[in-house]
Amino acid sequence: MNPLSLLTNLAINEVVKKEHIEAPEDSAHARISVQLLVTDANLGKAIKNCLSDFQFPFERICLKSISVLNQGLSSFDIIPILKNNLEEQVHTIVIGSEVNTLKASFDALQFREKYFNSSIVLSSAGQGVDRVIFEVKRPWLQNLNLLGNQAHLSDHKYLIAGESEGLRSIRLGTIRSEPGCVEPEIRSSDLFGISLNALKHSDSPIQSSIASTGLTSEEACQLLYYAGRSDRNKITTIYDFLPSATRHPLGINLLSTLVWYYLHGLNYRSHSPSQKLELMKKFSIDDPVQGHHLTFYKDEKEQKWWLESPFKDRILTREMPLVACDYLDYRSAANDQLLSERVENWFHLYENSDLLDQSL
Questions:
Q1: Do 356 and 313 touch, CB atoms closer than 8 A?
Q2: Per-residue b/e over 164-188, b at no fewer than 16 CB within 10 Å?
Q3: Cα 136 to chain center, whole Å?
Q4: Is residue 227 within 8 Å of 184, Cβ to Cβ?
Q5: Which position among 40, 53, 58, 107 has the lowest Cβ density within 10 Å, counted as fewest Cβ atoms?
Q6: By C-alpha distance, which of 294, 281, 291, 280 is closest to 333?
Q7: How far apart are CA 62 and CA 64, in angstroms?
Q8: Which domains, from first to last, does the chain contain?
């Protein structure tokens, strides 16, 4: 079946006309194709109408379509659409009320049969779809980051047990006190998902489970911006809201604003770091840190840090030669001779990945 037959594309002249049609000639600023995929037709129309009131100063963004699933289809019917977009290098923003929207996004990347990482913003770690994803994550999902979870809603035994297998949790309080601490996790993720239940109800009146505590809408927009900037990101999914969202103007505005901030980040996305290492500042640590000789790189233009994998004989290094990190990871290694929790987590994954076939 042709994946396009599952969709109805909405007229988007009101949105597209606000884009800069002419892109710069520099190939580093080539146009980026995006599809906004909404699982409910009425919701899609409401979001389209709201976006038409926004400004779109995005010279690199080509909004290919705002598409809605045809009547009678389920969340899992988006899988062939997402697979097709992955092959065509079209970035997809998926908006669907059901949690299965996120599971379908995960399945589409699994079926691609390439290593990938995921970050999910949620309030209750280990209580829902994240546990399902983590239990079936092999062989392709390497790292799962749970962001913004709250202690009184999360299964601590699950979090502790998963640490050795690539599960990393950054709680709401940490994000609140260090807003940029999750940027490296999101930067390394192919799939980014955000549950509206992770926000305060006052900021997210359409959430499916009322929460008195959580992220603010501004903090959520910042996370969507990080996802857009990530050169790895391919699918972004927004889920966990009421099917009646179309009757809530504030909720529609929130969904549309989250989409806008993702596009804002995407507009400033740069080349893969591996393609511009020679332009970065290199920091080699002479003494081994916990048995490893480490080399960090700093992208002065974007103020981002990367760590070169020291595991040259591992397949994961071939697929992910650089680890997204920050200055604190470098300082911990250089000054304290200690690997940060983030780096230790990644090194464990590299050590346990398969060896390269040296005969090839």
A1: yes
A2: ebbbbbbbbeebeeeeebbbbbbbb
A3: 19
A4: no
A5: 53
A6: 294
A7: 6
A8: 3-267 (3.40.800.10), 273-351 (no CATH)
154 half-sphere exposure, CB direction, 13 A CA radius: 21
**Quick one: which H or E segment has residue 60?**
none
> What number is the average pLDDT over the span 220-236?
97
pLDDT over 80 (residue 79): yes
Mean pLDDT for 347-351 is: 94
β-strands 295-299, 281-284 pairing: antiparallel
Residues pairing with 147 in the sheet: 121, 170
What distance, in Å, lies between the first and last C-alpha atoms of the chain? 37
Per-residue tokens: 333:
């290694």
Q: Which of 233, 230, 235 is nearest to 78 (CA)?
A: 235
Percent of the chain exceeding pLDDT 90 equals 84
Q: Against a cut of 0.85, is the pTM above it?
A: yes
The answer to whether residue 353 scores a pLDDT higher than 60 is yes
- Alpha carbon distance 277, 243 (integer Å): 46
List Cα–Cα distances, 230 to 13, 190, 225, 302, in angstroms. 28, 8, 9, 12
**Dihedral sign from CA coordinates of 13, 14, 20, 23:** negative
**Of 24-38, 78-92, 147-161, 261-275, which gets the smallest average pLDDT?**
24-38
DSSP 88-120: HT-EEEEE-SSTHHHHHHHHHHHHTTS-EEEEE
